[in-house]
Amino acid sequence: MPCSERTQVAIIGAGPAGLLLGHLLHRQGIDTVIVEARSREYVEARIRAGILEQGTREVLAEAGLGDRMEREGLLHGGIHLRFDGRNHHIPMSELTGGRQVTVYGQTEVVKDLVLARIESGAPLRFECADVRVHGLDADEPVVRYVLDGEERELRCELVAGCDGFHGVCRPSIPAGVLSIFERVYPYAWLGILADVAPSTDELIYARHERGFALHSMRSPSISRLYVQVDPGDDVGHWPDERVWEELHLRLACEGFALEEGPVLEKSITPMRSFVASPMRYRSLLLAGDAAHIVPPTGAKGLNLAVADVTVLALALASYFADGSATGLDEYSDRCLARVWRAQHFSWWMTTMLHPDPSDDAYGGELARAQLEYVCRSEAAATSLAENYVGLALEWSPQPAAPLTRSARG
Ligand code: APR
Ligand code: PHB
Question: For residue 274, which ligand has an atom nearest its CA?
Fold first, then answer.
């Protein structure tokens, strides 16, 4: 007989989505068990992006998770766009009434969340094998898994599918229920983590005929840099010298000098846009990468996951408080409105900044015209800025107020 236990919400996956949801529900006195396939070391070592929207920073701070972020995170009020050897600063804070982004690695966010979970004493099960979700149509869904060689059974009221793109939750939804929207880009990112102080005050996004490049950072002493490569390429073809050579060429600009340093990590990330809709099937609610993927150019992946679970935690809190299902019924539509806004912004940034080997010369000139416009038009730069720093968490397509300039005063 499997060892059986009961909880209110079974959370599958201990990435930012699952861990933050567990934290927010714990603060509401709602029982959860987090079931994670990998080890704690693996989860805390995974290198991902590191730009937090203003809203994400506020959610983490409000949830009592902001101490280290506020101490070690870098506040940025703008970005640099670079092409044709010229640099253009986009003063995002000025254009958005003072909103900023925080440079703080997703790896650090996950470490803070794991620590908070362990300190809370609420269950967090690492190295769970063969995780299966059953009975989504029944009153009481069941999550089964194997831990330390023992079959386990977790009975619950609801299941939160926070197990990422390659998880088991989305595929456990019967065929025909989900609509899938996808775009795969004909390029990828080779990223390096380098033990050298950043050569820039704020992020540099560069479009160059040799390909895209990004100069980001993790701290005043650690840089994070990316170059566009072929999707089928292999890190073995990219010795450190070649990576630095490409970065020098693509980031070249008068008065700019790129400092090199020891490469600590190197990996290639495919570029894809993906949305599964709806984000709920009966007692299963998908959040984060389990439901949607964006290319990293707009730095939206982590922020979308945080937005999803913030909406989900509110919906679950009212459901467990007074049985109201309104929040749960509206969950998918509320999140998808924001997801599609971020999908468009990420696609727009990606196609504007990456020379597309499959595109014709006309397409290349269109992207350049877009880049020129963003760097010259306050209206276009403001649009980039408000999407980049993050729209208000309760953003929805319905305009909050008339859009006329006079109405805006
Ligand atoms: N059973 C249990 N856990 C699983 C399973 C499974 N079958 N499959 C995957 N997982 C775990 C993964 O090991 C991972 O820890 O689910 C977690 C999913 O975490 P993420 O992939 O980080 O997804 P999410 O929490 O939605 O965060 C989205 O991560 O990939 C970045 O760019 C993305 O920044 C975004 C963020
Ligand atoms: C990162 O720091 O890893 C990073 C920053 C901005 C992006 C993507 C990745 O758009």
Answer: 1
